[in-house]
Write a structure and sequence with these properties.
The protein is mostly beta strands. It has two helices and eight strands. The chain has a single domain, classed as Phosphoribosyl-AMP cyclohydrolase (Ubiquitin-like (UB roll), Roll), CATH 3.10.20. Helices cover about 10% and strands about 35% of the residues. The chain has a four-stranded mixed sheet with strand order 2-1-6-5, covered by helices on one side. The termini are far apart.
Length: about 120
């Protein structure tokens, strides 16, 4: 099946193969998809920086691809990966989905796993 990119991008949901948790959502263009397939590590296209980035290139918290699934329309990917390092989220959490929305507001549902100021020193 051919990938159906919208505006040159396809959303890629990343799921931890060990826990089943959704770790993050990123976007791939054709180059990011091919680099992911070639290297075995998840690579995205950064919409804000307008360039490719491989998850973990700064933090060391890498995502090793175990399986890539495509949805029925060919316009979304599910990347099953193994996370190495303290967490996936640049805010210091295991997953980017660390907050629950409720009628009263939002609440944390995870503990911070690492200090982002230490990991992402500039």
């Amino acid at each position: 099946m051919e990938l159906n990119y919208r505006d040159g991008l396809i959303p890629a949901v990343v799921q931890d193969t060990r826990t089943g948790k959704v770790l993050m959502l990123g976007y791939m263009n054709d180059d990011a998809y091919h680099k992911t397939m070639e290297t075995g590590f998840v690579t995205f296209f950064s919409r804000s920086r307008r360039k490719l980035w491989t998850k973990g290139e700064t933090s060391g918290h890498r995502l090793a691809v175990r399986e890539i699934l495509i949805d029925c329309d060919g316009d979304a990917l599910l990347v099953r990966a193994e996370l190495s390092g303290g967490g996936c989220c640049h805010e210091g959490f295991e997953t980017c989905f660390y907050r629950r929305l409720t009628p009263a507001g939002e609440e944390l549902v995870e503990e911070r796993q690492f200090d982002p100021a230490t990991v992402y020193k500039k």
